[in-house]
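Running this now, will post back.
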Amino acid sequence: MGEKVAALGLDVGRKRIGVAGCDGTGLIATGLTTIVRSSYDQDIAQIRQLVEARQVNLLVVGLPYTMAGEIGAQAKQVQKFARRLAEKLGLALEYMDERLSSVEAENQLKAQKRFSSYNKGLIDQQAAEIILQQWLDLRRSRLQE
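Update: finished.
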């Protein structure tokens, strides 16, 4: 358990990428930023900056399965982007099922009175935080087995 956890959680959408990071202990995920997608190179450059600043070695990407648990067109796009990104930055890559993270993100923001439909970026960031938090919790429970 001594190793530092340096993961970045990503909620990859067509227009925006929500980004979350975790503290070194791997206990708590925090929303960091939302990248508004422009070009592939620009997206990569922005993520690279975060990766370098936080010494990240792992990407945790939310996969939008269909409610039937299948990998649809949207999830395939996300996988393709995530694979290229991980390869380009030389990072390990793991996926989390994110079917409910956006809904949960909205609910959490509403509960915190920070929700407005204008602030989609905040939802993406919160969704990334939920994805990473779920991964951290799963990792911790595996380590305790």
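Helices lie at 40-54, 73-89, 101-111, 120-144. More later if anyone needs it.
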